[in-house]
Amino acid sequence: MAGGLATGAVALHTHARKPPKPPSSAARVHVATVTRTDLSDSRSLPGTLGFGPRTPVTGHGTGVVTALAAAGSTVTRGHALYRADDQPVVVLYGSTPLFRTLKAPSGKQAPLRGRDVTVVADNLRALGYDIGYRPPDTDGRGATYTAELAAAVKRWQQHIGMTATGTLGVGQAVVLPGPVRIGQVQAHLGDPVQETLMSVTTTGRRITVPVEAGDESGIRIGAAVTITLPDERLVPGTVTAVSTTVQAGANDAGSGQQDPNSPPTVDVTVAPVHPKDLAALDAAPVTVRFTTTTRHGVLAVPVTALVALKEGGYALQRTDGTLIAVTTGLFAAGRVEVSGPGVTAGLRVETAS
């Protein structure tokens, strides 16, 4: 019995001197290095691919519709958008619509001047017609409808199959900002021309991304973005416009009614860098990744290297166990910008895996 007790005492003494095993749930510690790098913060938002908002086209003058451009087709300068009483009504580029009949002066009548005349003169010259001497527009009132310009209009009318008179009426041309794509045709052959005939859009595909009002401040025109298509392809794009108009919340998908819980938004417009990347799609839901903030040449560590301090703020733990307080900056892609006394590139710190 005495021998058994002695053996037990030795066993207990030996067990007490063994170091305890670490708990199985303890975090594994690794070493990271403070590096100088560029950090970029990005976010992905849903958008809609299409041709932009539709602009209605209303006919003017008298007569009935005898031909209409087909939906999905493109109409450019000098080509017919529709025909009224079998006369072509063509597209001219500009910002001022024709609002009166333009004709050459007769007798001692002063020639017409105006920005509508400027539209006609600019378009005929762009179409290759000689419009003769063009009096300078020194006061900003617009071009002059000279006899030479009227003669050019007459030659142009003859070439396109319009009754050649040298006089251009309100209903004989539609002034648009540029080439258009026919979005939807509302009119039918035989309808009166004085109604909404069709809607048109721009010819280039673009993406509209609704961004919550106030969150668009980091998005700049000209900024590069990445577009994710429905087939998961990634294509480059560029921000082309940031709207300054705040819109009410989005519609509820089930009821179609405005969702009162949806925040107001502004539209951000994105265009592909290479239009052929989207050539196979007319409309589709897409995702756009924006880079909203970029910091160049900053010191950064993995986020898991941060140690929360009891008194507030953060620190990094050196490999010798000492702490060094840091100020944090941009968080991006699992890394964080850090700065402070003693924080230098190459510093080795502990980080949890």
Report on this structure.
The protein is mainly β and 353 residues long. Helices cover 12% and strands 39% of the residues. The chain has 3 helices and 22 strands. It has helices at 2-16, 115-126, 147-160, and strands at 29-33, 35-50, 55-58, 65-68, 74-75, 80-84, 87-93, 113-114, 143-144, 173-176, 180-185, 196-201, 206-212, 224-228, 234-242, 265-272, 284-302, 307-308, 314-317, 323-332, 335-339, 348-352. Strands 2-13-16-15-14-17 form a 6-stranded antiparallel barrel. A 4-stranded antiparallel β-sheet has the order 3-12-11-5, with no helix packed on it. A hairpin with a 5-residue loop joins strand 18 and strand 19 (314-317). The two termini are 53 Å apart. Residues 1-26 have low confidence and may be disordered.
How do the SSEs run, as a string of H and E? HEEEEEEEEHEHEEEEEEEEEEEEE
Low-confidence stretches: 1-26
Secondary structure: helix percent = 10-25%
Give the rounded overall mean pLDDT: 89
Break the fold down into its secondary structure elements and pairings.
Elements: H1 2-16, E1 29-33, E2 35-50, E3 55-58, E4 65-68, E5 74-75, E6 80-84, E7 87-93, E8 113-114, H2 115-126, E9 143-144, H3 147-160, E10 173-176, E11 180-185, E12 196-201, E13 206-212, E14 224-228, E15 234-242, E16 265-272, E17 284-302, E18 307-308, E19 314-317, E20 323-332, E21 335-339, E22 348-352
Parallel strand pairs: 7-10
Antiparallel strand pairs: 1-22, 2-13, 2-17, 3-12, 4-6, 5-11, 6-7, 8-9, 11-12, 13-16, 14-15, 14-17, 15-16, 17-21, 18-19, 19-20, 20-21
